[in-house]
Amino acid sequence: MCFQHISVICGLHRRRKITHRRQDHSNLRRLRQTTPTAASFSVGLWNCQSAVNKADFIASYANHLSLQLLALTETWIKPENTATPAALSNNYSFSHTSRPSGRGGGTGLLIANGLKHTPLLPTNTYTSFEYHATLVNTPAKLGIIVIYRPPGQMGEFTNELDMLLSSIPDQDCPMLILGDMNIHLDSPCSTDFISLMHSFDLEQVPSPPTHKAGKNLDLIFTRKCDTDSLTVTPLHLSDHYFIQLNVCIEKKTKTAPTMVSFRRNLRDLSADQYSSLVTDNMPPPDSFSSLNVNDATDALCSTLSSCLDDLCPLTTRVMRSNKPQPWLKNDTVRELRSRLRAAERKWREKRIHADLQNYQLLLASFSTCLTTAKAEFYHSKINSLTDSRKLFATFNTLLNPPPPPPATCLTAEALASFFTGKVAAISSQFTDATELVLSCSAHGNPSPQYSWRSPGNKNLTTSSIFFNSVQSEDQGQYICTAYNDEGSDSVTVVVNVAVDYKLIIAVCAVVGMVGLLILSWRY
Q: Side-chain half-sphere of 47: how many Cα atoms within 13 Å?
């Protein structure tokens, strides 16, 4: 008989002690929040009327004024000219767009070396104006478009400018549009231009005359940025004045991301259901036994994870932003608070009186336990303090707690007080009408006589009716008739009595007039 050694894997089943992991908020670190700050640019604008012979002066003058951005129009730099851009790039980076053909024209922008910038728009040729567009990325995003429009009729300028502004990719980005527009804003032909700029939320920066002829030909428009300290300086090298201003942009606030916790509700997980689901989703025994150790482990872990997600999916909950009080870290307080929340959910779901009583008992116990834990925390803290400043600060916190925050919603007392005062204010506008006189008078020849018909069908022959104290039964329609040999006429008075304020509202209607009879009434 032959014996073979058979490998046997034995496992000893031990009762595993399950410990509930609790959240430890001390492991969380709050991200530092940045406060909004304003980025400022020192900007200049000048129609230099040829930068070819003035490159050294332009660079030196920009350095003297400590400008970060200098927009130039009529640079007269041809595409093949590389010497002038190199001369202008003294402590600056000069980007420009030359006129494709012919003399003159050209727009450019001097940008300080510390500022990062990229092209804002692709180069496009318009027939009515020239432009150069740049996007400054640091210290804040600012789109800059330098425009030069030659003198003459407006032509297609408004339509082509509309196409240019509509092609800006980010319409929320702060913008600075400036240049020599050669537009007289006081002329009727500028109405469409101004309306177009307003439609893109572009506001004009007011300035004194920018040309030696006393005209405002160099214009500046901004969006989502502020300007100040604008000055205009006449230079002998050009007919246009040199404009300098500060442009301020408020940086966007970066808020810390919301902290989220993940959890599974394992209390409702049935072991039999989970085991059955895992068995159904596992590969067949033959194919599973043929896998190597790594693949078999991956398949088992994937099956266990997917089944657990089906039965107990992960849920997220936003963590509260305020740090919990230290005495709430007490294990007894946490356990009692967990039971209290479970009892509250049970009562709100079923609305059973017994569940409400249980919830109230746990609430009282939790309040007592919380008071005890708070007292123990401060007792231990005071006994352990050796620094007198911290000790007095702790006493100050206990003896002078911060005032409660103002109510964020309207309380019942505030609502009742509001309507009480409202009713009192309205009531004070009315006066008690306890007396009423209805008088009917007429002029005629011969003298007229009078007759009254009242709501109670009482016939009176006097010209006036007196009410010493008006009652609700006195309301109704009163008809006064004045008559003589020539004819008669009547007047109708409607008396409404408002009982709450004893307000008498009398509405009269004159029925007609006969001959020379004139009626009037008063009360």
A: 24
The pTM for the full model equals: 0.46
Cα 331 → chain centroid: 42
Structure tokens at 218: 């160099």
47 touches 146 (CB < 8 A): no
* DSSP-based three-state secondary structure for 244: strand
pLDDT in tens, 325-345: 777 778 888 888 888 888 988
- The two structure tokens encoding residue 234: 């006449």
Q: How far apart are CA 153 and CA 288, in angstroms?
A: 85
H-type alpha helices, 141-244 = 157-166, 191-199
DSSP string across 111-129: EETT--EEESS-----SS-
Tokens 């009242």 locate to 454
Q: What is the pLDDT of residues 101-112, one digit of tens each?
A: 888 889 999 999
**Rounded Cα distance, 511 and 521, in Å:** 13
CB-based burial label for 29 (10 Å; 0-12, 13-18, 19+) = exposed
Q: 9 forms bridges with which residues in the sheet?
A: none
Beta bridge partners of 504: 497
Strand partners for 50: none
The count of C-alpha atoms lying within 13 angstroms of the C-alpha of 13, restricted to the half-sphere facing its C-beta, is: 0
**What are the beta bridge partners of residue 144?**
134, 176
